[in-house]
Amino acid sequence: MGPDSEVAEDDVEVRRIHPFQATKYYLCPGCNQDIVPGLTHVVVVPMHDPDLRRHWHTPCWENRHRRRPGRIV
Question: Can you give the residue ranges of every domain in the chain?
């Protein structure tokens, strides 16, 4: 496995996306804000269900265990 990917404890693969690779808009599930083209971020791919991959802001992914549950409005 290369320096741009790692296996996390949650049985997922985490891939770093470099600015030149980021060509689309995505919605970060950690903060519900846009990930804009050209922004470094990570793609999280569940090992047993790769169709459920999600794009996250890097800080949102790194701090996912410290976040409080979101409000229901």
Answer: 5-62
